[in-house]
Queue: 3 jobs
Job 1
Amino acid sequence: MTQSPPTDLIYGTVPHGLVPVPEGAVQVSPLFPQSLGLDTLADACVDNAVVLAPPGTAERAYVLAQILRVVKPGGTLSVLAPKDQGGARLRKALEAFGCAGHEDSKAHHRMVYLTRPAQLIGIEAAIQAGGLQDLTGHGLWSQPGVFSWDRLDPGSALLLKTLPPLAGKGMDLGCGIGLLANAVLTSPKITNLILVDIDGRAMAAAARNVTDPRTQRIWTDARQIAAAADQDFIVMNPPFHLSGAEDRRLGQAFIQAAARALRKGGTCWMVANRHLPYEETLNTLFTKVEVKAQAQGYKVFEAKK
Protein backbone atom coordinates (compact mmCIF):
# COMPACT_ATOMS: atom_id res chain seq x y z
CA MET A 1 0.00 0.00 0.00
CA THR A 2 1.39 3.40 -1.01
CA GLN A 3 1.62 5.78 1.93
CA SER A 4 -0.05 9.16 1.50
CA PRO A 5 2.33 12.15 1.55
CA PRO A 6 2.22 14.36 4.64
CA THR A 7 0.18 17.55 4.61
CA ASP A 8 2.77 19.69 6.40
CA LEU A 9 6.57 19.55 6.58
CA ILE A 10 9.12 20.95 8.98
CA TYR A 11 12.85 21.13 8.27
CA GLY A 12 15.19 21.46 11.25
CA THR A 13 14.66 22.58 14.83
CA VAL A 14 12.63 25.77 14.52
CA PRO A 15 13.07 28.04 17.57
CA HIS A 16 9.91 28.18 19.62
CA GLY A 17 7.67 31.16 19.04
CA LEU A 18 9.30 32.58 15.92
CA VAL A 19 6.96 31.15 13.30
CA PRO A 20 3.80 29.03 13.59
CA VAL A 21 4.46 25.31 13.11
CA PRO A 22 1.47 23.17 12.06
CA GLU A 23 0.63 20.43 14.53
CA GLY A 24 1.74 17.08 13.17
CA ALA A 25 4.23 18.54 10.68
CA VAL A 26 6.60 15.80 9.47
CA GLN A 27 10.35 16.31 9.95
CA VAL A 28 12.44 16.14 6.77
CA SER A 29 15.89 17.24 7.97
CA PRO A 30 18.59 14.57 7.47
CA LEU A 31 19.95 15.45 10.94
CA PHE A 32 16.96 13.69 12.50
CA PRO A 33 17.55 9.92 12.25
CA GLN A 34 14.81 8.09 10.38
CA SER A 35 13.27 11.36 9.15
CA LEU A 36 11.50 11.43 5.80
CA GLY A 37 13.80 12.22 2.88
CA LEU A 38 12.85 15.27 0.85
CA ASP A 39 14.14 13.55 -2.26
CA THR A 40 11.64 10.72 -1.77
CA LEU A 41 8.60 13.02 -2.04
CA ALA A 42 6.77 13.65 -5.29
CA ASP A 43 6.45 17.07 -6.90
CA ALA A 44 3.67 19.33 -5.57
CA CYS A 45 2.37 16.90 -2.96
CA VAL A 46 2.52 18.94 0.27
CA ASP A 47 0.32 21.81 1.44
CA ASN A 48 2.66 23.76 3.72
CA ALA A 49 6.25 23.80 4.99
CA VAL A 50 8.29 25.49 7.71
CA VAL A 51 12.05 25.59 7.14
CA LEU A 52 14.97 26.54 9.33
CA ALA A 53 17.33 27.13 6.42
CA PRO A 54 20.86 25.73 6.84
CA PRO A 55 23.84 28.11 6.72
CA GLY A 56 25.87 26.70 3.81
CA THR A 57 25.12 28.33 0.45
CA ALA A 58 24.80 25.16 -1.66
CA GLU A 59 23.10 23.25 1.14
CA ARG A 60 20.59 26.07 1.72
CA ALA A 61 19.80 26.40 -1.98
CA TYR A 62 19.29 22.63 -2.24
CA VAL A 63 16.90 22.53 0.72
CA LEU A 64 14.88 25.53 -0.48
CA ALA A 65 14.68 24.11 -4.00
CA GLN A 66 13.54 20.71 -2.75
CA ILE A 67 10.95 22.27 -0.43
CA LEU A 68 9.61 24.43 -3.27
CA ARG A 69 9.48 21.37 -5.50
CA VAL A 70 7.33 19.33 -3.11
CA VAL A 71 4.95 22.11 -1.96
CA LYS A 72 1.86 22.55 -4.11
CA PRO A 73 1.36 25.80 -6.05
CA GLY A 74 -0.58 28.03 -3.70
CA GLY A 75 0.84 26.26 -0.65
CA THR A 76 2.50 28.30 2.09
CA LEU A 77 6.12 28.42 3.19
CA SER A 78 7.69 29.98 6.26
CA VAL A 79 11.48 30.13 5.94
CA LEU A 80 13.81 31.47 8.62
CA ALA A 81 17.47 31.55 9.61
CA PRO A 82 19.70 33.44 12.05
CA LYS A 83 20.76 36.76 10.54
CA ASP A 84 24.45 35.81 10.69
CA GLN A 85 23.87 32.29 9.31
CA GLY A 86 22.18 33.04 6.02
CA GLY A 87 19.11 34.90 7.29
CA ALA A 88 20.20 38.16 5.69
CA ARG A 89 20.31 36.40 2.30
CA LEU A 90 17.09 34.40 2.54
CA ARG A 91 14.86 36.76 0.63
CA LYS A 92 17.27 37.03 -2.31
CA ALA A 93 17.74 33.27 -2.33
CA LEU A 94 14.00 32.74 -2.61
CA GLU A 95 13.60 35.49 -5.20
CA ALA A 96 16.17 33.69 -7.34
CA PHE A 97 13.73 30.78 -7.51
CA GLY A 98 10.91 33.06 -8.64
CA CYS A 99 9.31 33.55 -5.23
CA ALA A 100 8.09 36.81 -3.71
CA GLY A 101 7.37 37.00 -0.01
CA HIS A 102 7.00 39.14 3.07
CA GLU A 103 10.11 39.53 5.23
CA ASP A 104 10.18 40.04 8.99
CA SER A 105 12.77 39.82 11.77
CA LYS A 106 12.69 38.70 15.38
CA ALA A 107 15.14 37.40 17.97
CA HIS A 108 18.18 37.73 15.66
CA HIS A 109 16.40 35.78 12.89
CA ARG A 110 15.04 36.76 9.51
CA MET A 111 11.77 35.21 8.39
CA VAL A 112 10.27 35.11 4.90
CA TYR A 113 6.62 34.15 4.39
CA LEU A 114 5.45 33.28 0.90
CA THR A 115 2.98 31.41 -1.24
CA ARG A 116 4.52 28.91 -3.63
CA PRO A 117 4.12 30.26 -7.19
CA ALA A 118 2.97 28.12 -10.10
CA GLN A 119 6.26 28.64 -11.94
CA LEU A 120 9.68 28.20 -10.33
CA ILE A 121 13.10 29.19 -11.67
CA GLY A 122 16.31 27.18 -11.43
CA ILE A 123 15.36 24.60 -8.82
CA GLU A 124 16.72 21.71 -10.92
CA ALA A 125 20.21 23.23 -10.99
CA ALA A 126 20.18 23.89 -7.23
CA ILE A 127 19.04 20.33 -6.51
CA GLN A 128 21.80 18.92 -8.70
CA ALA A 129 24.49 21.17 -7.19
CA GLY A 130 23.45 20.43 -3.60
CA GLY A 131 22.59 16.76 -3.93
CA LEU A 132 24.56 13.56 -3.45
CA GLN A 133 27.38 13.59 -5.99
CA ASP A 134 30.51 11.77 -7.07
CA LEU A 135 33.39 14.10 -6.19
CA THR A 136 36.01 12.34 -8.26
CA GLY A 137 34.11 10.57 -11.00
CA HIS A 138 35.42 7.31 -9.57
CA GLY A 139 32.90 6.60 -6.83
CA LEU A 140 33.73 8.95 -3.94
CA TRP A 141 30.30 10.25 -2.98
CA SER A 142 29.44 13.19 -0.75
CA GLN A 143 26.95 16.04 -0.39
CA PRO A 144 27.06 19.70 0.68
CA GLY A 145 26.16 19.98 4.35
CA VAL A 146 28.09 16.90 5.41
CA PHE A 147 31.11 17.71 7.58
CA SER A 148 34.15 18.53 5.39
CA TRP A 149 32.06 17.31 2.48
CA ASP A 150 34.50 17.99 -0.37
CA ARG A 151 37.90 17.51 1.26
CA LEU A 152 39.70 15.44 3.89
CA ASP A 153 39.89 17.56 7.04
CA PRO A 154 43.35 17.83 8.70
CA GLY A 155 42.25 16.06 11.88
CA SER A 156 41.06 12.98 10.04
CA ALA A 157 44.20 13.05 7.90
CA LEU A 158 46.37 12.95 11.02
CA LEU A 159 44.33 10.11 12.50
CA LEU A 160 44.64 8.15 9.24
CA LYS A 161 48.40 8.67 9.26
CA THR A 162 48.70 7.55 12.89
CA LEU A 163 46.36 4.55 13.06
CA PRO A 164 48.02 1.14 13.28
CA PRO A 165 46.36 -1.91 11.69
CA LEU A 166 43.37 -2.79 13.87
CA ALA A 167 41.75 -6.15 14.58
CA GLY A 168 38.44 -7.59 15.70
CA LYS A 169 35.15 -5.73 15.75
CA GLY A 170 34.75 -2.01 16.18
CA MET A 171 32.86 1.18 15.50
CA ASP A 172 33.47 4.40 13.59
CA LEU A 173 31.52 6.99 15.57
CA GLY A 174 30.63 10.00 13.44
CA CYS A 175 31.74 8.15 10.32
CA GLY A 176 30.97 10.89 7.79
CA ILE A 177 31.23 9.65 4.22
CA GLY A 178 33.37 6.68 5.21
CA LEU A 179 36.98 7.66 4.46
CA LEU A 180 38.26 6.56 7.88
CA ALA A 181 36.23 3.34 7.68
CA ASN A 182 37.81 2.35 4.37
CA ALA A 183 41.27 2.86 5.85
CA VAL A 184 40.43 0.72 8.89
CA LEU A 185 39.08 -2.02 6.64
CA THR A 186 42.42 -2.45 4.87
CA SER A 187 43.38 -4.63 7.83
CA PRO A 188 42.44 -8.28 7.11
CA LYS A 189 42.04 -8.83 10.86
CA ILE A 190 38.90 -6.67 11.01
CA THR A 191 35.85 -8.91 11.51
CA ASN A 192 33.13 -6.24 11.72
CA LEU A 193 32.92 -2.45 11.56
CA ILE A 194 29.80 -0.46 12.47
CA LEU A 195 29.53 2.98 10.88
CA VAL A 196 27.48 5.47 12.91
CA ASP A 197 26.45 9.00 12.01
CA ILE A 198 23.57 11.36 12.81
CA ASP A 199 23.55 12.81 9.29
CA GLY A 200 21.44 10.87 6.82
CA ARG A 201 23.35 12.42 3.92
CA ALA A 202 26.62 11.08 5.33
CA MET A 203 25.07 7.65 5.72
CA ALA A 204 23.83 7.69 2.12
CA ALA A 205 27.32 8.62 0.91
CA ALA A 206 28.97 6.01 3.14
CA ALA A 207 26.63 3.36 1.73
CA ARG A 208 28.16 4.02 -1.68
CA ASN A 209 31.74 4.62 -0.56
CA VAL A 210 32.12 1.69 1.84
CA THR A 211 31.07 -1.57 0.22
CA ASP A 212 33.08 -4.04 2.30
CA PRO A 213 30.76 -6.84 3.50
CA ARG A 214 32.28 -6.65 6.99
CA THR A 215 30.42 -3.39 7.63
CA GLN A 216 27.09 -2.31 9.06
CA ARG A 217 25.59 1.20 9.11
CA ILE A 218 23.45 2.77 11.81
CA TRP A 219 21.81 6.16 11.25
CA THR A 220 21.66 7.51 14.78
CA ASP A 221 23.25 9.95 17.22
CA ALA A 222 26.58 8.40 18.18
CA ARG A 223 26.19 9.84 21.68
CA GLN A 224 23.17 7.61 22.19
CA ILE A 225 24.44 4.44 20.53
CA ALA A 226 23.22 1.29 22.24
CA ALA A 227 26.16 -1.06 22.66
CA ALA A 228 26.95 -4.19 24.65
CA ALA A 229 30.43 -3.17 25.90
CA ASP A 230 31.99 -5.77 23.61
CA GLN A 231 33.78 -3.74 20.92
CA ASP A 232 37.50 -4.23 20.42
CA PHE A 233 38.13 -0.73 19.11
CA ILE A 234 36.53 2.64 18.40
CA VAL A 235 37.79 5.22 15.90
CA MET A 236 36.40 8.75 15.86
CA ASN A 237 36.85 12.41 15.02
CA PRO A 238 34.07 13.84 17.19
CA PRO A 239 32.37 17.15 16.37
CA PHE A 240 32.71 20.12 18.68
CA HIS A 241 30.30 22.62 17.16
CA LEU A 242 26.55 22.74 17.73
CA SER A 243 24.41 25.28 15.84
CA GLY A 244 27.57 27.11 14.81
CA ALA A 245 28.98 27.51 18.33
CA GLU A 246 31.76 25.55 20.01
CA ASP A 247 30.38 22.98 22.46
CA ARG A 248 33.00 20.82 24.12
CA ARG A 249 30.30 18.63 25.63
CA LEU A 250 29.84 17.01 22.21
CA GLY A 251 33.31 15.49 22.24
CA GLN A 252 32.98 14.53 25.88
CA ALA A 253 29.72 12.72 25.08
CA PHE A 254 31.42 10.85 22.23
CA ILE A 255 34.17 9.75 24.63
CA GLN A 256 31.56 8.51 27.08
CA ALA A 257 29.78 6.60 24.31
CA ALA A 258 33.05 5.02 23.22
CA ALA A 259 33.83 3.92 26.78
CA ARG A 260 30.39 2.31 27.10
CA ALA A 261 30.80 0.40 23.85
CA LEU A 262 34.30 -0.96 24.41
CA ARG A 263 35.16 -4.22 26.14
CA LYS A 264 37.69 -4.17 28.96
CA GLY A 265 41.07 -3.82 27.26
CA GLY A 266 39.50 -2.30 24.14
CA THR A 267 41.03 0.77 22.53
CA CYS A 268 39.66 4.13 21.44
CA TRP A 269 41.56 6.01 18.75
CA MET A 270 40.45 9.64 18.64
CA VAL A 271 41.58 12.90 17.05
CA ALA A 272 40.69 16.32 18.45
CA ASN A 273 41.70 19.94 18.18
CA ARG A 274 44.67 20.54 20.45
CA HIS A 275 42.93 23.26 22.49
CA LEU A 276 40.02 21.06 23.53
CA PRO A 277 40.38 19.78 27.11
CA TYR A 278 39.40 16.13 26.67
CA GLU A 279 42.19 14.65 28.78
CA GLU A 280 40.18 14.79 32.03
CA THR A 281 37.25 12.88 30.52
CA LEU A 282 39.58 10.34 28.87
CA ASN A 283 41.58 9.76 32.04
CA THR A 284 38.40 9.29 34.07
CA LEU A 285 37.00 6.61 31.74
CA PHE A 286 40.12 4.84 30.48
CA THR A 287 43.00 3.14 32.28
CA LYS A 288 45.73 4.37 29.95
CA VAL A 289 45.69 7.47 27.72
CA GLU A 290 48.53 8.47 25.39
CA VAL A 291 48.95 11.23 22.82
CA LYS A 292 50.25 9.43 19.76
CA ALA A 293 50.60 12.36 17.35
CA GLN A 294 50.35 16.16 17.22
CA ALA A 295 50.34 18.36 14.12
CA GLN A 296 48.51 21.33 12.60
CA GLY A 297 46.63 22.06 15.81
CA TYR A 298 45.38 18.49 16.29
CA LYS A 299 46.26 15.63 18.60
CA VAL A 300 45.60 11.90 18.31
CA PHE A 301 44.82 9.88 21.46
CA GLU A 302 45.04 6.18 22.08
CA ALA A 303 42.92 5.35 25.11
CA LYS A 304 42.70 1.83 26.53
CA LYS A 305 39.77 0.78 28.70
Note: Residues 57-70 form the longest helix (14 residues).
Job 2
Amino acid sequence: MLQTSMSSDIELLRQKRALELRKKMMLSQEKNAPAETPSPKATSREIVRKILEGRGVEVLETARKYYPREVDQVEDTLASLIESGRLKGPLSGEELYAFLRRIGLVFSMDVKIRVKEHGELKTLEQKFRDSR
Protein backbone atom coordinates (compact mmCIF):
# COMPACT_ATOMS: atom_id res chain seq x y z
CA MET A 1 0.00 0.00 0.00
CA LEU A 2 2.81 2.34 0.86
CA GLN A 3 4.45 1.66 -2.44
CA THR A 4 1.25 2.43 -4.34
CA SER A 5 0.86 5.85 -2.72
CA MET A 6 4.53 6.65 -3.42
CA SER A 7 4.24 5.69 -7.05
CA SER A 8 1.07 7.76 -7.43
CA ASP A 9 2.84 10.73 -5.76
CA ILE A 10 5.77 10.33 -8.14
CA GLU A 11 3.37 10.10 -11.08
CA LEU A 12 1.58 13.28 -9.93
CA LEU A 13 4.91 15.12 -9.61
CA ARG A 14 5.94 13.95 -13.06
CA GLN A 15 2.64 15.11 -14.60
CA LYS A 16 2.88 18.43 -12.77
CA ARG A 17 6.40 18.96 -14.10
CA ALA A 18 5.29 18.07 -17.65
CA LEU A 19 2.45 20.59 -17.37
CA GLU A 20 4.88 23.31 -16.22
CA LEU A 21 7.17 22.58 -19.17
CA ARG A 22 4.23 22.82 -21.59
CA LYS A 23 3.24 26.19 -20.11
CA LYS A 24 6.80 27.48 -20.50
CA MET A 25 6.91 26.32 -24.12
CA MET A 26 3.57 28.03 -24.87
CA LEU A 27 4.74 31.27 -23.26
CA SER A 28 8.02 31.27 -25.17
CA GLN A 29 6.15 30.67 -28.45
CA GLU A 30 3.81 33.59 -27.70
CA LYS A 31 6.79 35.87 -27.04
CA ASN A 32 8.47 34.86 -30.32
CA ALA A 33 5.32 35.19 -32.43
CA PRO A 34 5.12 39.01 -32.49
CA ALA A 35 8.77 39.25 -33.50
CA GLU A 36 8.09 37.05 -36.54
CA THR A 37 5.31 39.25 -37.92
CA PRO A 38 6.54 41.32 -40.88
CA SER A 39 7.01 45.03 -40.37
CA PRO A 40 4.51 47.29 -42.12
CA LYS A 41 5.32 47.82 -45.78
CA ALA A 42 6.85 51.17 -46.70
CA THR A 43 4.66 53.45 -48.78
CA SER A 44 5.51 54.30 -52.37
CA ARG A 45 6.40 57.82 -51.30
CA GLU A 46 8.92 56.56 -48.71
CA ILE A 47 10.50 54.12 -51.16
CA VAL A 48 10.95 56.78 -53.85
CA ARG A 49 12.30 59.38 -51.40
CA LYS A 50 15.08 56.98 -50.36
CA ILE A 51 16.70 57.18 -53.80
CA LEU A 52 16.20 60.91 -54.38
CA GLU A 53 19.16 63.22 -53.92
CA GLY A 54 19.80 66.92 -54.28
CA ARG A 55 16.60 68.79 -55.04
CA GLY A 56 14.73 65.59 -55.87
CA VAL A 57 12.26 65.86 -53.00
CA GLU A 58 11.62 69.52 -53.85
CA VAL A 59 10.96 68.64 -57.50
CA LEU A 60 8.57 65.85 -56.50
CA GLU A 61 6.63 68.03 -54.06
CA THR A 62 6.39 70.91 -56.56
CA ALA A 63 5.07 68.50 -59.19
CA ARG A 64 2.57 67.17 -56.63
CA LYS A 65 1.13 70.71 -56.21
CA TYR A 66 0.34 70.85 -59.92
CA TYR A 67 -0.50 67.18 -60.59
CA PRO A 68 -1.41 65.34 -57.34
CA ARG A 69 -3.04 62.24 -58.88
CA GLU A 70 -0.45 61.83 -61.61
CA VAL A 71 2.47 62.15 -59.18
CA ASP A 72 0.90 59.46 -56.96
CA GLN A 73 0.75 57.14 -59.99
CA VAL A 74 4.34 57.98 -60.94
CA GLU A 75 5.46 57.26 -57.35
CA ASP A 76 3.68 53.89 -57.38
CA THR A 77 5.35 52.95 -60.66
CA LEU A 78 8.80 54.14 -59.54
CA ALA A 79 8.42 52.29 -56.22
CA SER A 80 7.59 49.04 -58.00
CA LEU A 81 10.61 49.49 -60.29
CA ILE A 82 12.84 50.17 -57.28
CA GLU A 83 11.54 47.13 -55.39
CA SER A 84 12.02 44.88 -58.42
CA GLY A 85 15.59 46.13 -58.82
CA ARG A 86 15.05 47.60 -62.29
CA LEU A 87 15.64 51.14 -61.01
CA LYS A 88 18.58 51.83 -58.77
CA GLY A 89 19.33 55.17 -57.16
CA PRO A 90 20.38 57.78 -56.71
CA LEU A 91 18.01 59.94 -58.74
CA SER A 92 18.87 63.64 -58.84
CA GLY A 93 16.35 66.45 -58.91
CA GLU A 94 17.41 67.39 -62.42
CA GLU A 95 16.90 63.85 -63.73
CA LEU A 96 13.49 63.62 -62.04
CA TYR A 97 12.44 67.01 -63.44
CA ALA A 98 13.48 66.00 -66.97
CA PHE A 99 11.62 62.67 -66.63
CA LEU A 100 8.43 64.33 -65.39
CA ARG A 101 8.52 66.85 -68.25
CA ARG A 102 9.09 64.03 -70.75
CA ILE A 103 5.93 62.23 -69.60
CA GLY A 104 3.92 65.44 -69.93
CA LEU A 105 3.95 66.92 -66.42
CA VAL A 106 5.03 70.47 -67.21
CA PHE A 107 5.55 72.78 -64.23
CA SER A 108 7.98 75.47 -63.18
CA MET A 109 10.40 75.34 -60.31
CA ASP A 110 11.42 78.24 -58.10
CA VAL A 111 14.86 79.09 -59.44
CA LYS A 112 17.23 81.50 -57.74
CA ILE A 113 20.50 82.42 -59.37
CA ARG A 114 23.11 83.57 -56.89
CA VAL A 115 26.65 84.76 -57.38
CA LYS A 116 29.48 84.18 -54.96
CA GLU A 117 31.34 87.43 -54.43
CA HIS A 118 34.01 87.91 -51.74
CA GLY A 119 32.94 84.67 -50.04
CA GLU A 120 29.29 85.81 -49.87
CA LEU A 121 26.33 84.56 -51.91
CA LYS A 122 24.31 87.38 -53.49
CA THR A 123 21.25 87.32 -55.71
CA LEU A 124 21.53 88.90 -59.15
CA GLU A 125 19.40 91.78 -57.89
CA GLN A 126 21.89 92.47 -55.06
CA LYS A 127 24.83 92.15 -57.44
CA PHE A 128 23.41 94.73 -59.89
CA ARG A 129 22.38 97.08 -57.09
CA ASP A 130 25.90 96.98 -55.54
CA SER A 131 27.64 97.55 -58.88
CA ARG A 132 25.98 100.97 -59.47
Note: Residues 1-37 form one domain.
Job 3
Amino acid sequence: MLFSTATGYALRALAALPEDGTFSLAKDLASQLELPGPYLAKILQGLVQADILASVRGPKGGFRLTRPSHRITVGEVVIALEGPHSLDGCIMGFPTCGGDDPCPLHDAWGVVKAQVVASMTEATIRDLQLMDIRHQKEARDRIPGKKP
Protein backbone atom coordinates (compact mmCIF):
# COMPACT_ATOMS: atom_id res chain seq x y z
CA MET A 1 0.00 0.00 0.00
CA LEU A 2 1.27 3.44 -0.92
CA PHE A 3 -0.21 5.20 2.12
CA SER A 4 -0.90 4.34 5.72
CA THR A 5 -3.91 2.49 7.03
CA ALA A 6 -4.96 5.75 8.70
CA THR A 7 -5.19 7.52 5.35
CA GLY A 8 -7.27 4.70 3.90
CA TYR A 9 -9.61 4.81 6.90
CA ALA A 10 -9.86 8.60 6.62
CA LEU A 11 -10.84 8.49 2.96
CA ARG A 12 -13.47 5.84 3.64
CA ALA A 13 -14.89 7.84 6.56
CA LEU A 14 -14.98 11.10 4.61
CA ALA A 15 -16.81 9.39 1.76
CA ALA A 16 -19.37 8.05 4.25
CA LEU A 17 -20.20 11.44 5.77
CA PRO A 18 -23.53 12.94 4.71
CA GLU A 19 -23.53 15.81 2.24
CA ASP A 20 -26.24 17.72 4.12
CA GLY A 21 -23.89 18.94 6.86
CA THR A 22 -25.33 16.84 9.64
CA PHE A 23 -22.91 15.56 12.24
CA SER A 24 -21.96 11.88 12.46
CA LEU A 25 -20.51 10.23 15.53
CA ALA A 26 -17.14 8.53 15.13
CA LYS A 27 -18.52 5.36 16.72
CA ASP A 28 -21.38 5.25 14.19
CA LEU A 29 -18.98 5.73 11.27
CA ALA A 30 -16.69 3.06 12.71
CA SER A 31 -19.59 0.63 13.03
CA GLN A 32 -20.91 1.38 9.53
CA LEU A 33 -17.47 0.96 7.97
CA GLU A 34 -16.37 -1.87 10.27
CA LEU A 35 -13.34 0.08 11.49
CA PRO A 36 -11.83 0.32 14.99
CA GLY A 37 -13.69 3.15 16.77
CA PRO A 38 -10.98 4.73 18.94
CA TYR A 39 -8.48 4.67 16.08
CA LEU A 40 -10.97 6.24 13.68
CA ALA A 41 -11.83 8.94 16.25
CA LYS A 42 -8.13 9.84 16.50
CA ILE A 43 -7.83 10.01 12.70
CA LEU A 44 -10.91 12.23 12.47
CA GLN A 45 -9.46 14.60 15.08
CA GLY A 46 -6.41 14.97 12.84
CA LEU A 47 -8.71 15.97 10.00
CA VAL A 48 -10.32 18.57 12.28
CA GLN A 49 -6.87 20.06 12.89
CA ALA A 50 -6.35 20.16 9.11
CA ASP A 51 -9.69 22.01 8.68
CA ILE A 52 -11.16 19.20 6.59
CA LEU A 53 -13.69 18.30 9.28
CA ALA A 54 -15.53 20.23 11.97
CA SER A 55 -16.42 18.60 15.25
CA VAL A 56 -18.87 19.25 18.06
CA ARG A 57 -19.02 17.39 21.36
CA GLY A 58 -22.20 16.03 22.84
CA PRO A 59 -25.12 13.80 21.92
CA LYS A 60 -26.01 15.82 18.81
CA GLY A 61 -22.37 16.35 17.94
CA GLY A 62 -19.88 14.43 15.92
CA PHE A 63 -18.01 15.22 12.74
CA ARG A 64 -18.97 16.85 9.47
CA LEU A 65 -17.20 18.16 6.39
CA THR A 66 -16.08 21.80 6.56
CA ARG A 67 -17.03 22.30 2.91
CA PRO A 68 -18.78 20.36 0.14
CA SER A 69 -17.19 17.03 -0.71
CA HIS A 70 -16.42 18.14 -4.28
CA ARG A 71 -14.14 20.83 -2.81
CA ILE A 72 -11.99 18.46 -0.71
CA THR A 73 -9.31 16.65 -2.64
CA VAL A 74 -7.79 13.28 -1.86
CA GLY A 75 -4.44 15.07 -1.93
CA GLU A 76 -5.49 17.35 0.94
CA VAL A 77 -6.32 14.32 3.05
CA VAL A 78 -3.06 12.59 2.18
CA ILE A 79 -1.05 15.70 3.07
CA ALA A 80 -2.98 16.14 6.33
CA LEU A 81 -2.24 12.59 7.46
CA GLU A 82 0.98 11.63 5.68
CA GLY A 83 2.70 14.99 5.49
CA PRO A 84 3.60 17.16 2.51
CA HIS A 85 6.64 15.08 1.61
CA SER A 86 5.05 11.64 1.82
CA LEU A 87 5.99 10.75 -1.74
CA ASP A 88 9.50 12.15 -1.55
CA GLY A 89 12.45 9.87 -1.18
CA CYS A 90 13.55 6.72 -2.86
CA ILE A 91 10.90 4.09 -3.59
CA MET A 92 13.48 1.43 -2.72
CA GLY A 93 14.55 3.20 0.47
CA PHE A 94 18.08 4.12 -0.56
CA PRO A 95 19.16 7.24 1.34
CA THR A 96 21.53 8.42 -1.41
CA CYS A 97 19.14 7.97 -4.34
CA GLY A 98 18.85 11.08 -6.47
CA GLY A 99 19.65 12.57 -9.84
CA ASP A 100 23.40 12.04 -9.40
CA ASP A 101 23.12 8.56 -7.89
CA PRO A 102 19.76 7.05 -8.98
CA CYS A 103 18.50 3.67 -7.87
CA PRO A 104 17.23 1.24 -10.55
CA LEU A 105 13.64 2.51 -10.12
CA HIS A 106 14.39 6.23 -9.78
CA ASP A 107 13.19 7.35 -13.23
CA ALA A 108 10.21 5.01 -13.31
CA TRP A 109 9.12 6.14 -9.83
CA GLY A 110 9.36 9.79 -10.91
CA VAL A 111 6.84 9.15 -13.69
CA VAL A 112 4.50 7.18 -11.43
CA LYS A 113 4.79 9.76 -8.63
CA ALA A 114 3.83 12.57 -11.01
CA GLN A 115 0.73 10.61 -12.08
CA VAL A 116 -0.21 9.85 -8.46
CA VAL A 117 0.14 13.49 -7.43
CA ALA A 118 -1.92 14.65 -10.42
CA SER A 119 -4.65 12.11 -9.66
CA MET A 120 -4.79 13.05 -5.97
CA THR A 121 -5.02 16.72 -6.88
CA GLU A 122 -7.97 16.07 -9.18
CA ALA A 123 -9.85 13.37 -7.25
CA THR A 124 -12.28 14.61 -4.62
CA ILE A 125 -14.19 13.07 -1.76
CA ARG A 126 -17.29 13.38 -3.95
CA ASP A 127 -15.59 11.16 -6.52
CA LEU A 128 -15.08 8.56 -3.79
CA GLN A 129 -18.72 8.85 -2.75
CA LEU A 130 -19.88 8.29 -6.33
CA MET A 131 -17.54 5.33 -6.67
CA ASP A 132 -18.92 3.85 -3.45
CA ILE A 133 -22.51 4.29 -4.67
CA ARG A 134 -21.61 2.55 -7.94
CA HIS A 135 -19.94 -0.34 -6.10
CA GLN A 136 -22.95 -0.77 -3.81
CA LYS A 137 -25.27 -0.91 -6.83
CA GLU A 138 -23.04 -3.45 -8.57
CA ALA A 139 -22.98 -5.59 -5.43
CA ARG A 140 -26.79 -5.51 -5.21
CA ASP A 141 -27.03 -6.43 -8.89
CA ARG A 142 -24.84 -9.51 -8.28
CA ILE A 143 -27.21 -10.98 -5.68
CA PRO A 144 -28.25 -14.45 -6.93
CA GLY A 145 -31.84 -14.65 -8.11
CA LYS A 146 -32.18 -10.87 -8.32
CA LYS A 147 -32.87 -9.46 -11.75
CA PRO A 148 -31.03 -6.21 -12.60
Note: The chain has a mean pLDDT of 89.
